[in-house]
Amino acid sequence: MTKKDNYEVLAKYYDGAYEAMKLEDAPFYLELARKSGGPVLEIGCGTGRVLLPIARAGVPIEGLDASSTMLAVLRSKLDKEPADVRRRVRLHSGDMRKFRLKKKFSLVTIPFRPLQHMYRLDDQIGALTNAAAHLNRHGRLAFDVFFPRFDLPAAETGEERLEVEWSDSAGRWVRRYFRRDSLDKVRQNFTGTYFLRTYEGDKLVLEETGPLNMSWYTHGQMEALFRLAGLDLVEEYGSFAKAPLNNAAAEMIFILKQRNVGKPRAASRKARRQ
Fold it and tell me: Which pLDDT does position 266 carry in this prediction?
């Protein structure tokens, strides 16, 4: 039985929506990629919103995604890129918890919250451990999750809200609405539905829907996951402008390294003392 691709509808609207929302994460990851010198592995590369600027900047990068629809959009965009950019990119289809490439990377990234699509502890540890396994000796793992908003009322569940609107290539207006359908505070996740409505003037000409399921994390929970995955924290930020991670933060952004990399083993230290 073929697994359903939750992005079958959303992929068509993905670039338009997030271009209109003017996200600030791509320059942050581009800076990290340049400093690393490459190669870079991006887990959850989607349609290439973050991946393509890195490739255009001259850094070799490989992208992985579980959605065949998202990868198809990225491949169509790659076909329009210059040959030198195409040569820097390799794409893979796979599960972030299980895939394993025969290569190590200077930088592994998980941009724009794919880790929040991991709902069970084993999945969360598996995804982080697997990402860390692709780091070279001095490599870094970087990713972001949203800062949990405990002030948002549960009463909003079931309400449809306009998030963003933009003009498509045909000059029609597209409006994306979101409705939170359920909220589980114990397991720290919620489900929802996107409504994509296209208008010609005031006339609704198309409506499509796509699901969203997400988990959220507290800072202490992230620290525990890092320990379980064998990772040490290097830097953390509360915004992509590198603001402190405090009560005013909208994001939790982490840069990590593998634990004890470069340190001599206890047996080796003992041998030198003898």
Answer: 46
* Cβ count near 259 (within 10 Å): 13
Reading the block at residue 62, the tokens are: 């490989």
Helix (H, G, I), strand (E, B) or coil at 165: strand
Beta-bridge mates of residue 35:
none
Q: How many CB atoms lie within 10 A of CB 177?
A: 18
pLDDT at 260: 84
**Across the strands, what pairs with 135?**
105
Q: Class for domain 10-148+217-267, per CATH?
A: alpha beta
Helix (H) or strand (E) holding 51: helix 51-56
For residue range 207-252, what is the model confidence (pLDDT) as tens digits?
A: 999 999 999 999 999 999 999 999 999 999 999 999 999 999 999 9
Would you state the structure tokens that stand for residue 225, as one six-digit string? 């996951």
Residue tagged 């970087």 (tokens)? 142
All residue ranges of the chain with pLDDT < 50 are 1, 264-274
For the record, the structure tokens of 204 come out as: 């609704």
**CA–CA separation, 223 vs 29, rounded Å?**
22
Other beta carbons less than 10 A from residue 269's beta carbon = 10
- Tell me how far CA of residue 24 lies from CA of 50, 111, 242, 246, 250, in angstroms: 10, 11, 11, 19, 12
- What's 4's DSSP letter? P
3-state secondary structure of 184: strand
Give the model's pLDDT for residue 53: 98
- Contacts for 59 with CB less than 8 Å, ≥ 6 apart: 33, 34, 36, 37, 38, 39, 40, 88
Q: What is the DSSP letter of 263?
A: P
The answer to whether residues 136 and 104 touch, using CB atoms and an 8 Å cutoff, is yes
d(CA 229, CA 259): 9
